[in-house]
Amino acid sequence: MKSLLAIASLAAAVQASSLDASTCTCGFYDEAQDNLWTDSLIVYFNETGIIPPDLFVPQDYRNRWEQGWNSQFIQGASIDNSWIGDTTTSNWTVVESNNSLSNVTYHPGPQALKLFVSPYDDKHVVVGGAISSQRQDIQYGSFRSYMKGAQNFTGGQSGTALSMTLEYNMTQQISLNIYNTNSNETAWISTLMNHEFPNRYLGVNYTNITDPHFGANCSDPNDQRYGLECTNNVAPTLSGANPMKNPWGDYNNMRIDWTPEVINYWLGNKLSRTVPGAADDGTDRPSVPVPLTLKHWSDGNEYAMGKFPPKNSSTVADVVYIRAFFNTTSMNATQQQAFNARCNKTAACSTENLELRGSTPYPPESKNAWVQADTGYTMRWPAIAVMALCLLLSLSTLSNVILRRIILPSKPKTKESPTESVIGNNNSSEDMSFTSGGTTPLAAHRSPIASGYVTPARTLRNSSAPTSTTFLPGSAAASIREHEGVPPVPRLPNGSIEGSPYASHAGSKLSLFKGADVTGEEIATTPLDLSLPATPFSPSFSQTRNLSFIGRPPTMVTYAPAVIGDTGNEEVVRNGVIAENVKGKTVPVSSSAAPTGEATSGGAKPAPRQKIDYLAGLLAVCSTLVSLTHYMLTFLPAVINVTYAHYDSENWARKTVGWFFFNEIWVVLFFTTSSRFLTTKYLRTGDLGVIAEKTTSRTFRLMIPIIGVIFLEYFLMDVGALDWLQYLPSVSWSVWPYTVVYQNFGAFISETLELIYVIPNAQPAITFNYCTGVLWTIPVQLDGSWTAMLGAIVFYEIKTPYKRFSYYFVVILTHWYARSWGGLFIAGLCMADLDVTYKYRKALYANKFVYYPLLNLVILIALASLGNDLVSNWTGFNLQIVEDGWHIDKLTGLSISQASGAKFPPYYVPKLNSLTFAIAAQLLVEWSTVLQKIISIKVILWLFPHIFTIYLFHGFIFWSVGSAVCVGMSAAGAPYWANMIITFISCYAVLYLSLPIITPVVEALGKSATNTIWSSASEQPAPKRATTYPFPKDLFTSRNVDNPTEGSDTMSSASSFSENMCKGGGMKSMSTTDSSASSFIDRPPTADETTKWPLATEKPVHF
């Protein structure tokens, strides 16, 4: 109260001897900072009955959106909330007001500028009070204010901010803010620039503000508030200024000094923060003319001012005076020269003279907002024309592909009995057939003829090398046409021909001619004689003959995406059947035996295979539900969490259907299914080569496409694709979306590599730089892969069933208690083991009295696991919090409930209901034929090849396209229900239209590269050949122009070859015009020819 009386008495004394600032024609000199300012703006609100209309204007506005990851409310201002009053006593007097306020909460104070914040409305608009200077030409200056923030209240009130701001736009802004936060512990004063995130190190807490060291840590290089040297760890002191007092009950001096060299923030007489640097040094420090604004506001940012604004009654903050000394852009060069000629520091008025009142005169143009001068930029039409042409060509090519392969796909042409001559007029053909579980007669192939001799098809280096892939809608089918008139040949994921001896390591046989069986291993090392000897001049020389044109009628082959499948080398989904090639036979993964369905010689349709499309459908459904969950968290958070709702229907949806459809638990089925894909073949064969291949390929299969996708997102984020995301919380009322661009490319590389090596349950740092953060599952997938494969080796050796499954139970239980995701992978391994090794389903289906009770049991377990959120929404009881207390606190060794208290665990920590749901849901899908039919419909199966793309890319679509559409629709005044319909359609339309473009790239990156890596790691590389092969190494070095007789053998051979080739007959001409060449083709090479062509007798090479 003494300070209030002192202010009143001081005001009365000064008012009698005030000095008009307009008389200071030589400006105002700040001796302490050695700055000379040309203009001033000084108002003491405790001395005037009105807000001076020639100096300040009360604001009246409503923002369309707010920028900030946590700003759930929209700012507004009303002239009714800015007026001058006296609150010294409870019977306070309104000196000047445009309208009276009802239900106002106040605190005692002298006459001052009163800025109110009204309770927020149902549209989340918070109307506050604000005044802004008439002048908008302020560029650099010293701005001082004597103010007090809003009081803290009880009864549900929350925080507001009283700010002194210099702002042109989002990147040209300086502000000093007093946050009351409705808490003594968290109330603070921030010093921000360019809408920085309100980190606590950029301000001072109320509890420390009266301490001489208040938060100053000058020796800490990480403390970004200080750029000046400090003495004894104490911030620099401003001479002549009063120290800070209790901000709850007293007024305090707040000051900003803004110069081209530095920005200083002063609290009382202490320097709180400094931002050094020249104005033209490339930094984004403010440098353009701005108005000066005082405002009392709230946007609900819980990290700065509290979770929500006042909701029951208005709150008020006070400003006693504002003293601003500054330079202006309204002074032209001539006026500036005249000022410098007649004025100096001694002729200027002192900025510390408290008798100064009023403002210096200013021209009318000072009220105009600054506009960036035209830089004379002209359109670069040549570059635009080139870019447009390239874009047109790209769109034309893409449209052609979509039209021919998706909209109007052509049917492959087939011939019933195609035959073709092998050489010359020889029309004979051989009957070839495969032996792969059943005999399938194969039609003869068409061999392309060029230059009179046979040109065999291009051969691959080895049988498992990757083949070219054609992606069709709804599949990632492999189709290759290496010969004219031959339909696409289905290949297994390792690149081998389906049904061919290449499909397995050994055991399958190929009948090249009647009565002659050759094993697959022999084929890999023995050239095949098709009536054409290998010569140094033929493309087939020293190479294995390619048999890729031999095969059954085409069959669609679909590969499981990497995030849930294996490495893509054995198991496939063929016509809805996940199958693999074992010992020359195509065997479905299903435990029940079923005909393999080999094609008959008459071209009849294959026998029906046992369908397990439901596994593909299950993963497609899970991927869709995960994306829908993230959509709700982004745009309709009240459907999942207890938070602000636009409509009551959102709360009802959370309590009725949200627990089932929008539950994070669906992601766990990716883990159990992944384990099944990884271990099925090993459990069936016991071949450690399978484990070796998957161990080598697994990381590359996952990480190569992921690196491509995150690099694409990195680029798109850097060019501003997510600019609208920071405005979304003020429209959707969701604070869940958050992502920032990487600091630099090195950070991008570091965080990408971290995905490979981080140990769950650690949260990868990249989740903060990636849309929706789904990449937290990648370390879980990799870690779980090693757990599953190592577990498969161990469990395979335990032959006694009861010991085997008892160990399964112990391992799963210990993983759960250790809070490890490995329990889900072991559970998937256990179910695969039951199916593959023990074929339990056949016995289960045969006994209805066992089958139906067990089916009902797993249904109840699955629903109960999902229903944890349902129970929590209706009763408030949460089993996951109780479960959290059961686990061990690592620091103390006690249970968490005893040590630190149980709390809701993070999403990246496994929970008991996740484990029970994964097991029950997987068994339910495998047991229920009704459910299998539902999730095997074509619409769902169409999504299956794209689930990895959907999983990786849906977040970016939601946060870029979705945020722009949602914010734009809100700004246009659309009701939120209509906004959501349009946003939902836009997001999923863009997502699904991008699938045919992105999926082939993702699959090609992962599958092709992985196959190449495994091939190069597991197979002996081809021998190195000389550059001149098949010619001798001395082909050119032995040439002697002066003595042509030297090297005559080489020269004559080369000349003979060149001469005959130049006659236009190629090999055919050689056979008819050169007898030696003809004899060379028709007979084995002689010893002399072997000397001339030493490579002709080397062991054939397999490409």
UniProtKB/TrEMBL annotation:
Q: Which CDD domains match?
A: Glyco_hydrolase_16
Q: Where are the transmembrane segments?
A: 381-403, 614-640, 660-678, 699-717, 805-829, 849-867, 939-961, 976-998
- Show the ranges annotated as biased composition (Polar residues): 419-437
The alphabetized UniProt keywords are: Membrane, Signal, Transmembrane, Transmembrane helix
Keyword Membrane applies: yes
- Ranges where the record places region Disordered: 412-437, 1037-1056, 1065-1103
The signal peptide annotation in the UniProt record is: 1-16
Write down the InterPro entries for this protein, in alphabetical order: ConA-like_dom_sf (IPR013320)
> Which stretches does UniProt call biased (Low complexity)?
1069-1079
What is the name of the protein in this document? GH16 domain-containing protein
